[in-house]
Amino acid sequence: MTQADEVSVLILAPHGRDGTVAAAILGEVGIKATICSDLETLVAGLDAAACGVITEEALLSADRRELARWVERQPPWSDLPFILLTYRGGSPVEHLTELLGNVTVLERPFHPTVLVNAVRSALRARQRQREVETYLEERQRTHERQALLIRELHHRVKNTLATVQGLLGATARSTRSVDEFYHSFADRIVSLSNTHNLLTEDYWQTAPLIEMFRNELSHYDDGAQQRITLDGPPVELSADLAVPVGMAVHELTTNAAKHGALSVPGGQITVIWTVRDLEAGRRLDIKWLERGGPPVAKPSRKGFGSTLLHRVLTHQCHATINIAYDREGLSCHMDIPLVEERLVPEY
How many CB atoms lie within 10 A of CB 283? Predict the structure, then answer.
């Protein structure tokens, strides 16, 4: 709350004309003041006030316990300024100044300028306190954001290490030589790194789907943008979806480069995706289509790429995967729910 949102000054002066006079003086210089009928009313308004003006006799004749409790309960940044009006020639009652804490004593009768200057000083002090409140709140929000990012980092590292471990074992089982293992494993780590780069660059920790396709496919294009076609709306994937989808795209690209449309100069790949809004939630529909490559036949054994597509996307993303080995070209259809789930990859 800023000073503009506050009732600037509360006045408690139930005897005589002090309250009316003080409110009129402050009103002439544009300071909003509210006259309170009793101490209970004043205490009820202190949370929204910037200053309290109180006559000494008003405190002496009232039950001050609720006021004392309010002063004691102030947050660390707050020290509400009070102005205590006393009679000329007397000394303010010590326990009243102790009760109010941050208090300025003015003797009556006072010159209007003296009251205005005292109130303005109090308002400036309260404004500074509000600035401290804002600063402390921002620090707290920063601390909470840092704690959230640290928890996200722990989660991300855990999932990444599990992913790398799975890639290591699966690559070792699907390769026949050290050289083949090295190149296959290195390529998969680079693909995983590219996906993490997209996630790290975005404040919201998401990765654009189209950039994931571009990372894998752009260097296979022919310059005329006729060999690779990417068509779909903007889609941002959370880390829990981006990593497995990125791995799947890499495996499809690798298979196309070794055996499919990308293994010959005239081959083409078309990727089309749409997002459907269903009662159960949003779903991402991806169609991968290869044409112009060598004739396709269903493999005699399931390789690591198809195993990853089915196992990771099915178990981790709860996706539905269909691969068709049509003679004119491989096609893959992925239907993925767009929900954020924190699951450790399974292999």
Answer: 17
Using alpha carbons, select from 242, 218, 239, 243 the residue that is nearest to residue 228.
Answer: 218
User: In the chain, which residue ranges form alpha helices assigned H by DSSP?
Assistant: 18-28, 39-45, 56-60, 65-72, 94-100, 112-174, 178-201, 209-217, 239-258, 304-311
Block residue for tokens 């660059």: 201
The token pair at 217 is 């496919």
Per DSSP, the residues of 271-285 read EEEEEEEETTEEEEE
Number of residues that make up the chain = 347
Q: How far apart are alpha carbons 15 and 17 in whole angstroms?
A: 7
What is the DSSP code (8-state) at residue 143? H
Query: For 54, phi and psi rounded to 5 degrees?
Result: -135, 135
Residue among 209, 297, 314, 229 nearest 260 (CA): 297
- Answer yes or no: are the C-beta atoms of 14 and 40 closer than 8 Å: no
DSSP state of 177: S
Do strands 82-87 and 33-36 pair parallel, antiparallel, or not at all (unpaired)?
unpaired
Number of helical H runs and strand E runs in the chain: 10, 12
**pTM flag (> 0.85):** no
Q: What does the block give as tokens for 20?
A: 């009316």
What are the tens digits of pLDDT across the range 279-297? Answer: 888 999 999 999 999 999 8
Cross-strand bridge partners of residue 106? 85
Closest Cα partner for 121 from 53, 56, 23?
53
What phi and psi values does residue 13 have, to the nearest 5 degrees?
-150, 75
Which residue shows structure tokens 């300028």?
113
